[in-house]
Design brief:
Low-confidence stretches: 508-515
CATH architecture of the largest domain: Alpha-Beta Barrel
Structural class: alpha/beta
Number of domains: 3
Strand content: 15-25%
CATH topology of the largest domain: TIM Barrel
Shape: globular
Largest sheet: 8 strands, parallel, barrel
CATH class of the largest domain: Alpha Beta
Strand order of the largest sheet: 2-3-4-5-6-7-8-9
Radius of gyration: 24 Å
CATH superfamily of the largest domain: Aldolase class I
Distance between the termini: 37 Å
C-alpha cells in the first residue's frame, strides 16, 4: 500500500469504550469537559456514548451534540431497531451526526452470544445499516470480533454493509487477539478483494490484551485504513484500547517511515491526559509513553550528562510538543493565587474560579506543612479537587486514635446530600475503624478489593495518595484521595469511590437486541 502522506481520521471513543473500564463512570459534566478539550484538539470524531445503554448515555450524546460544533459526534447502536432509533434521537442536534452500528461476526460470538447463523447475521447487517442510513447520512458499521471471524464470511458482511449504505467499515480486534502481520492482512485483503471498497473508509479498533493495540492500529493504517479508533491514555475494556497519544505521536515523530498525518493538536495531550485521569480516577502509570510522569525524566548519570550536552541524545520528541514545559515557577507558602493559576495551567489544568479558589486553599494548607512544593503535589491537589466536586458525600472532619495502647477508633463527620452526620467507630487498626465509620453513615454492601497508598513526592512531609477500589453486584469503582495525612487521604479516597458507586448504580444496559 502506498503511503502518499495520507491524512488519518482520529476517532476517539474515550467517552464510550473508555467509560466501559470497570470503575470509570463519568458524569455528564465530566463528559462535556472532555469533549470540549477534544474539540480544541481537533479530534475528527467523538463517540460520545451508547444512547440505549442508559438515560445518562443518551443525555451525554444529546448534550455533547448540542455543544460541540467542530468535531463530528457519533453514537453507538447494536443491530436492532430500538438501538438505532435511540441513537438517531440523541444525535438530532449534531452538526454532522454519525451512527455507529455493529454486530458480532465470529463463530464463537454468533453461537454463544447471538445464537444466530450466518444468514441471520447478514440480514441484521443489511437491516441495521439501511435503517441507520435512512436516519443519518454517515453510518459506520463494525464487525465485532472481526479478527476471529472466518475470512470469507467477513468479506460477505463487509460487502453487505457497503451495499446497504455504510460510509465507514470498522474492523475491530475486539479481544486484542491479532498480531500486526495478521491485522495488516485482514485490512489489505478486504480492500483488495471487495470491489466497492474504494467507496468507504476502513477503520481500525484494537484492544490491548497482548500489548499490541498501537502496533496493530499502525499496521491497519499501513494496509490502507483511513481512520483509527483510540482513547486518551489507552483506557477501555480489560487491558484498554490503542492509546490516542501514542498513535498520533508515532506518526508525527516517525513521519519518515509512517508517512501519515493527523489534524490533532498534540500540545494539548498532557492537559487531556490529566483531565481523563482525574475524571476516571485511573492513574497514568509513571512510565506510560508520551504522557507518563517519567516520559521526559532522566535519572541515570550517563543520561543526565547527555541531556546537559544536547537533549536529542535521550529525547526523540520535546516535552513542549505534548504540552509540557520547563518548570519556571517555584511554588511555596508565599505564592499568590495568580502564580498558582499559572502553574496549574503550565501543568495542563484550566481552572474555573470556584475550582481555583478551593484548590488554592488546599495548596496554602499544604504549603504551611511542607518546606518544598513539587509539581506532583499540585497535580495531586487539583486531581483530588476535580474528583470531589459536586459529589453527594463529602468529608467534614476526622479524628483518629491509634497506637499500641487502647482501642483504635475513628470519630467522623460527613456531609451527605447537604446534611451533616457524625459517628464514632472502632476497628482492627485506624484504617479499618475509619472505613467502618464511613459505612455506618453510608451503609452499603460493596467489597473492598484494593487499598493502596503511595507517596506523591519524597520526604516525611510528602503527600500520600490513596487509591480505593470497591466492587458491588458486578460494578467496580475506583476512588482517589490525597493529603499529607494518610488517613485523611484514605477517607477522601473511600468517599470518592462511594460517590462513583452511586453513579454506577444508575447504569442499566438492556438485554441484547437483535433483528
Amino acid at each position: 500500500m502506498t503511503n502518499n502522506n495520507r491524512n488519518i481520521k482520529i476517532f476517539d471513543t474515550t467517552l464510550r469504550d473508555g467509560e466501559q473500564s470497570p470503575g470509570a463512570s463519568m458524569s455528564l459534566r465530566e463528559k462535556i469537559q472532555i469533549a470540549e478539550i477534544f474539540d480544541q484538539m481537533n479530534i475528527d470524531i467523538i463517540e460520545a456514548g451508547f444512547p440505549i445503554a442508559s438515560n445518562g448515555d443518551f443525555e451525554s450524546v444529546k448534550e455533547v451534540s448540542k455543544i460541540i460544533k467542530n468535531v463530528q459526534v457519533c453514537g453507538l447502536a447494536r443491530a436492532g431497531e430500538k438501538d438505532i432509533d435511540r441513537a438517531a434521537e440523541a444525535l438530532k442536534n449534531a452538526k454532522n451526526p454519525r451512527i455507529h452500528t455493529f454486530i458480532a461476526t465470529s463463530p464463537v460470538h454468533m453461537k454463544y452470544k447471538l445464537q444466530m447463523n450466518e444468514e441471520e447475521v447478514l440480514d441484521a447487517v443489511n437491516f441495521s445499516v439501511s435503517r441507520a442510513r435512512n436516519l443519518v447520512d454517515d453510518v459506520q458499521w463494525s464487525a465485532e470480533d472481526a479478527t476471529r471471524t472466518e475470512s470469507d464470511f467477513l468479506h460477505k458482511c463487509v460487502d453487505v454493509a457497503i451495499s446497504a449504505g455504510a460510509t465507514t467499515i470498522n474492523i475491530p480486534d475486539t479481544v486484542g487477539y491479532a498480531t500486526p502481520d495478521e491485522y495488516y492482512e485482514i485490512i489489505s485483503s478486504l480492500i483488495d478483494n471487495i470491489p466497492s471498497s474504494d467507496k468507504v473508509t476502513f477503520s481500525t479498533h484494537c484492544h490491548n490484551d497482548l500489548g499490541l493495540a498501537v502496533a496493530n492500529s499502525l499496521s491497519g493504517i499501513r494496509a490502507g485504513a483511513g481512520q483509527v479508533e483510540c482513547t486518551m491514555n489507552g483506557i477501555g475494556e480489560r487491558a484498554g484500547n490503542a492509546a490516542l497519544e501514542e498513535i498520533v505521536m508515532s506518526m508525527k515523530v516517525r513521519n519518515d517511515v509512517l508517512n501519515y498525518n493527523s489534524n490533532v493538536d498534540t500540545k494539548l495531550f498532557t492537559r487531556a491526559s490529566r483531565l481523563v485521569s482525574s475524571v476516571t480516577s485511573f492513574p497514568v502509570q509513571y512510565n506510560k509513553a508520551i504522557v507518563g510522569k517519567n516520559a521526559f525524566a532522566h535519572e541515570a548519570g550517563i543520561h543526565q550528562d547527555g541531556m546537559l550536552k544536547h537533549n536529542e541524545t535521550y529525547e526523540i520528541m520535546t516535552p513542549e510538543s505534548v504540552g509540557l514545559s520547563e518548570s519556571t515557577l517555584v511554588m511555596g507558602k508565599h505564592s499568590g493565587k495568580h502564580a498558582f493559576k499559572e502553574k496549574a495551567k503550565e501543568l495542563g489544568y484550566v481552572l474555573a474560579d470556584n475550582q481555583l479558589k478551593d484548590a488554592f486553599y488546599r495548596f496554602k494548607e499544604l504549603a504551611d506543612k511542607k518546606k518544598e512544593i513539587f509539581d506532583d503535589d499540585i497535580v495531586a491537589i487539583i486531581d483530588d479537587e476535580f474528583s470531589s466536586r459536586n459529589e453527594q458525600i463529602k468529608l467534614v472532619s476526622l479524628m483518629i486514635q491509634a497506637g499500641t495502647e487502647g482501642p483504635q477508633f475513628a470519630e467522623l463527620a460527613m456531609e451527605v446530600n447537604g446534611k451533616i452526620y457524625k459517628t464514632k467507630s472502632d476497628g482492627d487498626g485506624p484504617v479499618d475503624a475509619l472505613f467502618n465509620a464511613i459505612s455506618e453513615i453510608v451503609p452499603h454492601e460493596s467489597e473492598l478489593q484494593l487499598y493502596q497508598v503511595h507517596a506523591v513526592t519524597e520526604g516525611t512531609d510528602a503527600q500520600a495518595e490513596v487509591s480505593v477500589r470497591l466492587h458491588e453486584s458486578g460494578k467496580t469503582v475506583i476512588g482517589r484521595g490525597a493529603d499529607t495525612d494518610t488517613l485523611v487521604a484514605s477517607a477522601r479516597a473511600y468517599i470518592s469511590a462511594l460517590n462513583r458507586l452511586m453513579i454506577k448504580r444508575k447504569k442499566n444496559i438492556p438485554e441484547e437486541i437483535t433483528n
